[in-house]
Amino acid sequence: MAERVAIVGSGLAALAAQATLRHAGVRPAEIAVFGTHEDPTEVWQGRAAAIRQERMRSESEGHLAAAAWPGLALRDGPGAWLQTLANRYHPPVRLFLRHAARVRDASGWDASFRAGRVERIAAVDGGFEVDGDGPFRHVLVATGHPGLALPDPYASDPRTVHAYEPHDYGSKVAIVGAGMAAAHEWLNALAAGSEVQSIRRREPTRRPLNVPRPLLTKRGLEPYHRSTPEEHAATLRTLSQPSYPPGDAWDAPLRAAEAEGRLRVDDRLNGADQVICATGFREGWAHDPLLARLVAEHDLPTHDRWIVLAPDSTVAALTDETRTLALAGVAAQWAFPAADTIAGAKYAARAFARRVCRSR
Amino acid sequence: MSFTLRGRIQTRLAAAVPALLVAIALQRWWAIELVALMLAIGLALDVVYDRAISYQPAWLALPLGAFELALVYGGMRLLGIAAPLSWALGLFGIAWASAQVAGHAAFPRLRLEYGESGGELGRAGALTAVAVAATVFGGLGAAYATRPPTVHLHGTVQGPLVITRSEVLTGGVVKGGIVVRANHVTIRHVTVVGGEYGIDVEHAQHVTIDHVRVVRSQLDGIRATDAGVMIHDCTVTSPAGPFVAGILISYSMGRPMSMVDGCTVSGTREGISTHSAAVDVMNNHVIGTSARGILLGEMSMDMASHNTVEGAKGIGIICMDHSMCRIEHNTVAATQVDGTQDPTRGGVGIEAFFYAEAQLEHNTVIASPGGMRAFDNSVFTP
Q1: Torsion over CA of B104, B41, B146 and B191, rounded to 10 degrees?
Q2: Final residue of a structural domain among A231, A260, A277
Q3: Are the Cβ atoms of A216 and B2 closer than 8 angstroms?
Q4: By C-alpha distance, which of B189, B252, B250, B251 is closest to B220?
Q5: To the nearest whole angstrom, how far is the Cα of A99 from the nearest Cα of chain B?
Q6: If phi over 0 gives left and psi between -120 and 50 gives alpha, with beta otherwise, what is residue B203?
Q7: Residues A60 and A138 in one domain
């Protein structure tokens, strides 16, 4: 049977989509995955390694298999089962990666994968062409974050490295940012014996997950989807403020370092020999060449830095009963505020799989 | 999970399927009534939970389950649902456990978007929920429509009163005893004075005797032969002769299990006796019997638990004649020597006699010179 489904992108969101489609009965031969990395964990793994991340921020259900159960806690022993009752379980990164490898094997990822960066998606009769291939009736774009953000004036500073790039720690380290990556870097640099200057414009929000839990389900999503575009954007801006989880595992080392005078908070650089920008990613569709071209060529509706999507993550203007264009990952925030998480990837994947199955 | 109200309701109704199937299999109206009560309380609470709990972590199922259990138990007592406590707990346990298994494992596997849709189950789930609700509340309606007639007694009625059809007899005083010869009879809040037997049940089952007081009977206070009876919160006192047994259940192995729960028996010859029967004897208070306090005998398979036996003459609790008994959490106090020099009746608190096997656990025997003893090829097992 000819391929009729295309996934553009080859990261975790793409793998979640592949697994979900397979669960729905779509065969690997019917799916084409276009991407630059054959290993779907490669990019994410590089970033996690750069900030020495050992545990996921997500919980037991933060995995890539199609069904939520069994979660990762079930594979990690009775202690994990108990922790997960109180949402205290955060899977080890190594366990997550092992699980991702299993999902890759089981989902037939390698059979669907086609190496290459996609430059253009064009709506045509019967679906979409992906760089001239196709047409595919259903396309899911999961291209991920459009590059690392290095804000001025640090971008041009030779001392600067981004947190998600490989690096060691100097003796006096300035860490810019206040989110999850910054929190890791504070602890890493302190553990390496550095003096740490935390440069931040605001105090970080302490939140277990990227977004409040109700926003992961219909309970919070329904009012969000009903809100006006301005309210949508305001919610997304609020949620994009830096945050990291509460807990003594984070706070105790920071308190101790502050007491020793090895950690101070500042709003500007002051004598650091290394600047680590834990400032996340460039934000907005305009930074992604593929999305920018898609928007321009098809005159897609946007609002500020977001592409306007239907609640099921589809691009309404290019989706009907016969074809689907949907977004996953960070580009799908208009539909799902936590789109750049595993939960978000699966939200988009499930909606996409429903449409694929419905059109059989 | 962050449930929507619809998600809570659909999940609760669909997860009730196993409990409902068990209730249907039991073929007892009380089981259907109990499931209906659990669902009614649960659905009412869902409205409250929806407002109070925006996110429900998994551990919260335990305290919420305990809270719902307390409400269901209270509702059961209030509405007079005649469910045996152990069965009621079992049914609640099945409902609670199946809700956990369904909510955490089964539903997320059957419907991938179960979590993100706030517990909503889609069209199939909604149909299941409606079917469950229709079955339970339809069953409740059927139970109500086919319930036996209720006879209210006012003042004193001269007996013996012979019941030969299914009915509920409630209130009043009956002189001369009550004879039950039909299934599905309930006697509630009745005082029985005199009679050869206070209440005599024979060849009948699903008979409930609830909050009944029996005084001055000539033979047995309550006698059940070839019968299945549920006796709750009764009182048997002031026997009219020296040979009266308080409650006697005999030759009932072919009938559904019987229960004697929460009764007070005082001053009779024997307190509560079973012969060739399967009976749960629990939470009773047996005082001042002139012979054995509780007797489990003649190849019975009984359980005696959480009873208090005070001042029995000879033996407090006995398991005898090839019976197999579980005797646990009882308190036996001040058992007296009966004066015959027979060591088997020498103020023995708990006794196994003549090829009986008694499993003992957590019993307390106080001021009973014979202690706990096994005679004539009988054994105690821990």
Answers
A1: 130
A2: A277
A3: yes
A4: B250
A5: 18
A6: left
A7: yes
Whole-angstrom distance, CA of residue B332 vs CA of residue B349 = 6
Q: Are A21 and A142 in contact (CB under 8 A)?
A: no
The ipTM value here is 0.91
- Alpha helices by DSSP H, listed for chain A, are 12-23, 42-50, 78-85, 93-107, 109-112, 180-191, 218-226, 229-239, 248-260, 289-298, 342-358
Residues 6+ apart with CB under 8 A from B5: B46, B47, B50
Q: What letters, b where the CB count within 10 A reaches 16 and e where it falls short, cover B297-315?
A: bbebbbbbbebbbbbbbbb
Taking the C-alpha atoms of residue A325 and residue A117, their distance in angstroms, rounded to an integer, is 18
A343 CB neighbours in chain B (<8 A) are 116
A177 and A86 assigned to the same domain:
no
Per DSSP, the residues of A271-318 read S-SEEEE---B--SGGGSHHHHHHHHHHT--EETTEE---TTSB-GGG
Rounded to whole angstroms, what are the CA distances from A255 to A129, A188, B163?
A: 55, 15, 81
β-pair type (B315-320, B348-353) = parallel
Longest Cα pair distance anywhere in chain B, in angstroms?
77
Residue with tokens 């869902």: B46
Do A143 and A11 have their domain in common? yes
Q: If you write DSSP's letter for every residue of A178-225 in order, what string do you get?
A: -SHHHHHHHHHHHHTT-EEEEE-SSPPEE-SSSS-GGGGSHHHHHHHH
Nearest residue to B130 (alpha-carbon basis) of B6, B7, B4, B10: B10
Q: Across the A/B interface, how many CB contacts are shorter than 8 Å?
A: 68
Amino acid identity of residue A255, one-letter, is R
What tokens does B115 get? 């979590």
- Rounded-to-integer distance, Cα B127 and Cα B10, Å: 9
Helix (H), strand (E) at residue B308: strand B308-310
Domain interval for residue A131? 5-147+282-358
pTM: 0.76
Residue B116 to residue A343, Cβ atoms within 8 A: yes
**Residues in B touching A85 (Cβ below 8 Å):** 57-59
Dist. CA B126–CA A58, nearest whole Å = 30
Could you read off the pLDDT of B70-90 as tens digits, one per residue?
999 999 988 878 788 888 999
Q: What is the pLDDT of residues B149-174, one digit of tens each?
A: 899 999 999 979 999 999 999 999 99
CA A205 to chain CA centroid, Å, is 19
The residue written with tokens 């299945």 in the block is B228
Which of B57, B58, B115 lies closest to A217 in CB terms?
Answer: B115
Please write the tens of the pLDDT for every residue from A66-105. 999 999 999 998 999 999 999 999 999 999 999 999 999 9
Task: Pick the last residue of a domain from A224, A259, A277.
Answer: A277
Residues A142, A164, single domain; the answer is no
